[in-house]
């Protein structure tokens, strides 16, 4: 395909082995490796070091501008692919949307999707972005978007998720590898968007996205003084997070039995599957354990095959005990986000397929990462930065009661204070004369807010979008309050 560059930049671009479309009248031909065939339609942004000159960066930034559809066409947005590995074969796709009002005064939020390998566009369209899509496929403006309080980066991560890709199909197998990519992405993103240097920064993720979030937060908190990171990490939001050992969280047999989705026989049978997985993991046969896990609960199996969960409950959708099938708007979103028209808008090669390598990435991570313990990472984050930890009342993947029990077992700076704290009802932030609406429950101790969202399933932000938006606004206020007195200064253990 044809590509356009400034002649002066050709040497730079060749040296970075990444081709990019720029706006000059001089044309030159360039071909990319055919597998997995990105074409000139992918906007690759090789902001790989501090020597890329400012004119070039300005040019790339302008090339990455996006006009969002209809109800959001007035918003300032950017998207493209940033290389994150040393040989430039791994590219992460992002969509960045600036807050409509007072963008310069508002913090920057990095949104990390879960589902292992699901595109962050899922979050943008169905959960918290300004551009929503309904069950008829109609686009609308989401009034309670997180954009009211934050500038947002929607990032498809790890590589292999959403539209992110690796030319050689080398996807991360551990949190560590994915975190290195995430940190590189942020450094390079900040070269293009200098206005965010030293800005307040938040990292948010649900399900597997929460695991990615603690990985990034820990790396930011433990960097050496010589590796100054130009963002101020103010808070981390973890929803229904895959942050405890998987085998301690995932056996939902008892919860499904208590909610009548399984009978006694079904409970025993389902429980037996998890015992098998536990045994395989104990003898360190992680590949077999991952495969068994996929057959037991994951919605990722060959067409026509059903997971044990589906066979026993009849639920095609694994996430909420009140939603047996995937909501229609999810199918509409996938169709739209994968449409040629939308891909062209977002500088994505039209031959790419959304979430195409998701299953492959999930199986690699399942074998390499799912059975690893990341509790120490979580504790380090809890000890050093404000955390919003939230669970969902109707979660059939990581039941809220299990999450609470595991959180209570943690030993962190504020654990004694947390055990003593009272749980209180949490009501929607009142607008003038509006009736009281109960959204869930809240417990605050030290630097941690712990909330349970009523009527939400595993995909909390999909099920209870407005409630989570209210929660993030509360947390933002919480992070701006003076920190609780340091443990060393108080008589009681914090």
Automatic annotation (TrEMBL):
Keywords for the protein's UniProt record, in alphabetical order: Carboxypeptidase, Glycoprotein, Hydrolase, Protease, Signal
Keyword Repressor belongs to the record: no
GO molecular function list: serine-type carboxypeptidase activity
Example GO BP: proteolysis
TM spans (from-to): none
Similarity comment text for this entry: Belongs to the peptidase S10 family.
Name of the featured protein: Putative tick serine protease
């Amino acid at each position: 395909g044809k590509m356009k560059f400034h002649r002066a930049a050709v040497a730079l671009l060749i040296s970075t082995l990444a081709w990019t479309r720029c706006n000059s009248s001089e044309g030159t031909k360039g071909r990319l490796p055919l597998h997995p065939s990105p074409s000139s339609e992918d906007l690759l942004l090789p902001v790989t070091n501090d020597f890329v000159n400012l004119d070039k960066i300005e040019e790339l930034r302008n090339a990455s501008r996006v006009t969002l559809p209809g109800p959001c066409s007035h918003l300032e947005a950017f998207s493209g692919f940033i290389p994150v590995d040393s040989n430039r074969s791994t590219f992460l796709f992002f969509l960045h949307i600036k807050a409509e009002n007072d963008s310069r005064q508002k913090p920057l939020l990095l949104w990390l999707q879960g589902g292992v390998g699901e595109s962050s566009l899922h979050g943008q369209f169905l959960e918290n972005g300004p551009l929503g899509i309904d069950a008829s496929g109609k686009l609308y403006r989401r009034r309670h978007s997180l954009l009211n309080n934050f500038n947002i980066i929607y990032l498809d991560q790890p590589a292999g998720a959403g539209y992110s890709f690796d030319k050689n199909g080398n996807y991360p197998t551990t949190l560590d590898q994915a975190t290195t990519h995430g940190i590189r992405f942020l450094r390079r993103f900040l070269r293009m968007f200098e206005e965010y240097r030293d800005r307040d920064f938040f990292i948010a993720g649900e399900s597997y996205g929460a695991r990615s979030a603690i990985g990034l937060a820990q790396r930011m908190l433990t960097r050496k003084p010589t590796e100054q990171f130009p963002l101020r990490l103010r808070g981390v939001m973890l929803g229904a997070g895959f942050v405890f050992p998987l085998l301690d969280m995932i056996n939902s047999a008892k919860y499904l039995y208590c909610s009548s989705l399984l009978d006694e026989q079904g409970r025993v049978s389902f429980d037996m599957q998890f015992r098998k997985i536990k045994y395989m993991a104990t003898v360190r046969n992680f590949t077999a354990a991952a495969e068994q896990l996929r057959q037991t609960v994951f919605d990722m199996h060959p067409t026509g095959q059903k997971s044990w969960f589906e066979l026993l409950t009849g639920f095609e959708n694994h996430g909420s005990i009140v939603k047996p099938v995937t909501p229609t708007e999810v199918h509409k979103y996938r169709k739209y986000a994968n449409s040629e028209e939308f891909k062209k808008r977002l500088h994505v090669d039209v031959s790419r397929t959304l979430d195409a390598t998701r299953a492959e990435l999930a199986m690699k991570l399942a074998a390499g990462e799912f059975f690893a313990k990341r509790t120490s990472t979580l504790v380090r984050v809890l000890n050093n930065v404000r955390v919003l930890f939230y669970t969902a009342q109707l979660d059939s993947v990581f039941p809220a009661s299990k999450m609470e029990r595991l959180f209570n077992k943690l030993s962190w700076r504020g654990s004694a204070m947390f055990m003593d704290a009272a749980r209180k009802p949490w009501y929607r932030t009142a607008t003038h004369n509006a009736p009281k609406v109960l959204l869930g429950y809240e417990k605050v101790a030290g630097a941690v807010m712990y909330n349970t969202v009523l009527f939400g399933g595993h995909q909390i932000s999909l099920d209870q979008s407005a409630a989570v938006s209210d929660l993030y606004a509360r947390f933002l206020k919480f992070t701006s309050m003076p920190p609780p007195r340091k443990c060393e200064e108080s008589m009681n253990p914090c």
